[in-house]
Design goal:
Length: 77
């Protein structure tokens, strides 16, 4: 599974990287990706809102270890 690690990014950088990553995943017809946010911090708190407002994300789940989100990407038609 393709992963994006947002550690050491500012909130603004993390948002931008996340949006670009999701768009690339959609363009490349990937079904699922993992976005590493860490177990705490502002990126971790904000990511669910980013996902909720991105029409290319079908749903997200928290990974087993809790430091990332598994993201299901909408199917490209």
């Amino acid at each position: 599974m393709l992963k994006l690690d947002l550690h050491d990014k500012t909130l603004e950088e993390a948002y931008q990287k996340c949006q670009e990553f999701i768009n690339e995943a959609y363009i490349n017809n990937l079904k699922k990706v993992e976005i590493i946010t860490g177990k705490s911090g502002s990126i971790r708190r904000e990511f669910p809102f980013w996902a909720e407002n991105n029409h290319r994300i079908q749903y997200t789940t928290i990974s087993e270890h809790g430091g990332s989100f598994v993201v299901k990407i909408e199917k490209k038609f």
